[in-house]
Write a structure and sequence with these properties.
five-stranded mixed sheet; about 40% helix; four-stranded antiparallel sheet; Aspartate Aminotransferase, domain 1; alpha/beta
């Protein structure tokens, strides 16, 4: 037998030996050390690890099933929901769940989730009640709308509104407002799914009233849609048409998707209007300016649970509420209760102190600097001038001055912090690690220090 043939035979023999040496599923499953995985999950991990190891061996590579199983189990544990410390300074961090609920909203959600409630029961006479009646009432009080409906999220609000008011009809939208946001949400795709027909008007940077007039004359339109570009800015040689001008030339409803959910642009629950809020459209101002309907998120600047709100003319809300897909987009009792509690803060005048977003956004610099210096005294690093961001597709370009902790040359800590028992998400900057305590609960300062010390 030739030398190449001998080598090939030896390789095959060695491969067969290694394949035979792969552990049994039960034996490998029992060796997986995990407090979080059930015995059934460990068996599933073991099967997957053995298949991966076998495939690698057949491909001519070395593979250890035990190591692969340990890596798979660790990945499952790391991806399981857990508390995180947000050290990024991004107040509404989409990857971390956006707005934190107030204590009252969280408690209301818990009560609704663990008890029977009068979700669809009228306690006055015992008849079947109107789902979401109380929350709709609070929404009309806070926004000035005639009526309002709560849905899963703002994307659901856009889809439902288009499906109910413009099926098979044209909907003019400025080319400068054909937004895409995280998670592959593209407005043209949503419009297509709704049955409405997109009519692009104007150009990317400039849209005029006449562009809409032409579209309304040429097409059978169901509504006119204006969209706030909440996650980008248009600057330079630009122009757009406001809702008042749209209302003046339109014979169909004018719908304004503001997305970010600022209830009132004047921000009356604060001592003064923040600079960044001046460029954000408010729900009250949009309705007062001529919009027939305003759509916005619940878990952004409102500071409530994930939800979408459609607010405005009662006849249009009735039409939307009766649409067949409205039921598929309604929220559960916990979300409804959390939204009601959040809105109550605005009515009671304690939104600044009670709602975490507003509490973080208005935290005094001197208090933040004192906290950052306390952390620095324990773990090192320098205290520098920095900035926090609003986040979640809200107030693009807006920055809030904040002191930050810089750990020079320690970007290598990023993954270790994520894998800790109490994980921390920090910011990476040119090889350094930045931590902004504006988004850290003061009660977690000690926990933050402990996590950092374990990882250093």
């Amino acid at each position: 037998m030739s030398a190449p043939a001998d080598a090939k035979l030896g390789f095959v023999t060695d491969l067969n030996d290694r394949l035979r040496d792969l552990p049994a599923v039960d034996a490998l499953a029992s060796s997986i050390a995990s407090d979080q995985l059930s015995s059934k999950e460990r068996v599933g991990v073991a099967r997957e690890a053995i298949e991966i190891a076998r495939a690698r061996m057949l491909g001519g590579h070395n593979a250890d099933a035990e190591t692969i199983a340990a890596e798979l189990a660790a990945a499952i544990e790391l991806r399981s929901p857990t508390k995180m410390i947000n050290g990024t300074g991004v107040l509404l961090h989409t990857n971390l769940g956006r707005a934190l609920l107030s204590d009252a909203a969280a408690n209301a959600a818990r009560v609704a989730a663990t008890n029977y409630t009068n979700l669809e029961l009228d306690r006055v006479d015992g008849s079947r009640g109107k789902r979401g009646w109380h929350t709709s009432r609070l929404l009309t009080e806070t926004t000035g709308a005639e009526d309002a409906i709560l849905v899963n999220n703002n994307a659901a609000g856009v889809l439902l509104t288009l499906a109910a008011l413009a099926p098979g009809k044209a909907v003019p939208v400025s080319r400068g407002e054909l937004i895409e946001i995280g998670g592959s949400y593209r407005l043209p795709d949503v419009m297509k799914a709704s049955g409405a027909h997109l009519v692009e008007v104007g150009t990317t940077n400039r849209t005029r009233v006449g562009d809409y007039v032409t579209a309304l004359q040429v097409h059978e339109c169901g509504l006119v849609l204006k969209v706030h570009h909440a996650n980008y800015e248009l600057v330079g040689f630009v122009s757009e048409v406001d809702v008042g001008d749209l209302k003046a030339i339109s014979n169909v409803p004018v719908v304004f998707d503001i997305g970010s959910g600022l209830i009132d642009n004047a921000v009356p629950w604060l001592d003064q209007q923040p600079e960044w809020a001046r460029r954000e459209p408010g729900v009250r101002q949009a309705l007062g300016g001529g919009a027939d309907l305003v759509l916005f998120s619940g878990d952004k600047l409102l500071g409530g649970p994930q939800a979408g709100v459609i607010a405005g003319r009662s006849d249009l809300i009735d039409q939307i509420r009766r649409h067949p897909i409205a039921r598929a987009m309604r929220v559960d009792s916990s979300t409804d209760a959390a939204m009601a509690a959040t809105l109550q803060h605005y009515i009671d005048g304690d939104a600044r102190s009670a709602i975490p977003f507003w509490r973080m956004a208005t935290m005094r610099r001197e208090l933040l600097e004192e906290r950052v210096r306390t952390v620095s005294s324990s773990i090192g690093g320098s205290v520098e001038h920095g900035h926090s961001l609003i986040g979640a597709g809200s107030a693009p370009g807006a920055r809030i001055d904040s002191p930050v902790l810089r750990l020079a040359g320690r970007q290598d800590l990023f993954e270790s912090l994520l894998r800790d028992a109490l994980p921390v998400l920090a910011r990476r900057d040119a090889g350094d690690l930045l931590i902004d305590l504006r988004t850290v609960d003061p009660d977690d300062d000690r926990n933050l220090i402990d996590t950092l010390m374990r990882c250093l």
